[in-house]
Amino acid sequence: DQQVKQNSPSLSVQEGRISILNCDYTNSMFDYFLWYKKYPAEGPTFLISISSIKDKNEDGRFTVFLNKSAKHLSLHIVPSQPGDSAVYFCAASGNSGGSNYKLTFGKGTLLTVNP
Amino acid sequence: KAGVTQTPRYLIKTRGQQVTLSCSPISGHRSVSWYQQTPGQGLQFLFEYFSETQRNKGNFPGRFSGRQFSNSRSEMNVSTLELGDSALYLCASTFDRVKGELFFGEGSRLTVL
User: Fold this and answer.
1) Nearest-angstrom CA–CA distance, A67 and A20
2) Pairing of the two strands A86-97 and A32-38
3) Does B65 score more than 80 pLDDT?
């Protein structure tokens, strides 16, 4: 039962253009949605998040959009840079019972930004 | 502030052996989570410890276990290793368990022969 899905294993864009990474979820009880970025041989690093009560959050070149009715979120990177080339993981945080919270990850999308 | 530290970074074991991985969280972080990363499967949640108690557990067999010490350092153990246990094991710590902003270590790369 995969509650967080990233249906595109890879995405390739040109430097300077927009990168759009997509994520779908099935559990409407998630409280926060997050994006993590991972370079090879390193641990993932937190990029940006959005509360379930918001529909947009922006941080510099990165914007996350949340469409609760469609259970869909996306990460926009504008403009894309070669250094953005990495695996991007979508994640969702929700209560797993009592005061416990659990973060569920998608399988990741490999973004390649070509110079 | 020092980041999350995992040891060892790389290790090779044979089937049937056991392994212990260690994680030192960021100072002040009381929650430590463990994830398994394999190609094509993304990040699979193993378990989370908070204040020395396991708070969440993923869908892994009982061969996978962990613990947390009073200084928040954590260890995970895998017994009777199988070839399929070859993976990158990532530890993450956080001070905000609700928002899920985890700080990851660089991981321990386990190869089972």
Assistant:
1) 14
2) antiparallel
3) yes
Does residue B60 sit at the A interface (CB-CB below 8 Å)?
no
B9-60: per-residue pLDDT in tens?
999 999 999 999 999 999 999 999 999 999 877 899 999 999 999 988 999 9
- Cβ of A108: how many Cβ atoms within 10 Å? 25
- Tokens 């253009």 sit at which residue? A17
pLDDT tens column, A35-59: 999 998 889 999 999 999 999 999 9
Partners of B90 on chain A (C-beta within 8 Å) are 43-44
B21 near A CB under 8 A: no
| pLDDT interval class at B91 (50, 70, 90) | very high
CB-CB under 8 Å, A44 with B90: yes
How does DSSP assign chain A, residue by residue? --SEE---SEEEEETTS-EEEEEEE--TT--EEEEEEE-TTS--EEEEEEETT-SEEEETTEEEEEETTTTEEEEEESS--GGG-EEEEEEEEEEEETTEEEEEE---EEEEEE-
- Considering only CB atoms, B41 lies closest to which of A91, A96, A107, namely A107
Measured distance CA(A81)–CA(A2) in Å, rounded:
31
